[in-house]
Amino acid sequence: MTGMPEGEPTPPDDRPLYHRVLLKLSGDAFAPADTGYGISTDSTGLLARELADVVDLGVQTAVVVGGGNIFRGRQAPGIDRSRADYMGMLATVMNALALQDALEKIHVPNRVQTSIHMAQIAEPYIPLRAKRHLEKGRVVVFAAGIGAPYFSTDTTAAQRALEIGAQAILKGTKVDGVYTADPHVDPSARRFETIEYLDVLREGYSVMDATAISLCMENALPIIVFDFREEGNIRRAVSGERIGTLVHGGVR
Questions:
Q1: How far apart are CA 27 and CA 191, in angstroms?
Q2: H-only helix segments in 106-232
Q3: Contacts 24+ apart (CB under 8 A), 80-88
Q4: Measuring CA to CA, how many Å separate 126 from each of 101, 151, 163, 209, 215?
Q5: Is 167 helix (H, G, I), strand (E, B) or coil?
Q6: In the predicted model, what is the mean pLDDT of the chain?
Q7: Are 178 and 245 in contact (CB under 8 A)?
Q8: Smallest Cα–Cα separation from 207: which of 172, 156, 249?
């Protein structure tokens, strides 16, 4: 295995491998590193600088954000599941606005689009409009999940990536790839350089949920799982460097 999608040519050193990507970030990406809760200006500032670096390469970049640093709908006992999921969607909007603020502070053009109508603070999600923003060099941040309960932001990322024609999903995590077990708990856990979708589904490895993996597999959309906290990793991923784990092997 080369660490790149099968059949994909290696780009020249000064050109990125991917020209349109979708970055999936959990709520942890927005929180202070030591607590995992709330929104940190340091964390959002780092994300903004990393995205600016990718935009400077000419890569059209969309982002799907989670909201677990504020509220996790499925972990809210005593609250109706549908209502709790909508509360979680609102948490993602807060993170999206925080990222928008950080991007604007360093003069990176961007738009926030939400699946739940809230015209005073964001555009509605319209795929063609999102594509036009990307073509004009704007970062597009997708919030409020898929707009319906019982669907994760992982599934949202796969669906949005397919609708906008992204060439890859970049899945930012707190570890440097896909492991046989949690490396923070099991020091003998082994990291995969590449792994096929079916193996992820069969073994239940922690990548994205089964619906998201199935969507990517059906449409041969590669997923690159990597540590988002290491500076320069998003740029490395879009440039085709071997970082993290490449999830691949889909059939049409």
A1: 23
A2: 127-135, 153-164, 197-203, 210-218
A3: 81/149, 81/150, 82/149, 82/150, 85/145, 85/149, 85/150, 86/116, 86/149, 88/145
A4: 22, 19, 10, 24, 20
A5: coil
A6: 91
A7: yes
A8: 172
Asked if 207 and 155 count as a contact pair (C-beta separation under 8 A), the reply is no
Task: Sketch out the chain's domains with CATH numbers.
Answer: 20-248 (3.40.1160.10)
Token readout for 239 is 């440039």
* pTM for the model: 0.90
- Distance, in Å, from the CA atom of 245 to the CA atom of 225, rounded to the nearest integer, reads 5
Rounded distance, CA 46 to CA 29, Å? 10
Nearest Cα to Cα of residue 55 among 121, 106, 4: 106
CA distance 93 to 115: 10
Comparing C-alpha atoms, which of 152, 128, 172, 165 is closest to residue 214?
152
Chain segment 10-43, per-residue pLDDT in tens: 454 568 999 999 999 999 999 998 887 999 999 9
pLDDT > 60? residue 100: yes
Six-digit token string for 87: 């509360």
Positive or negative, the CA dihedral 77, 81, 86, 92 is positive
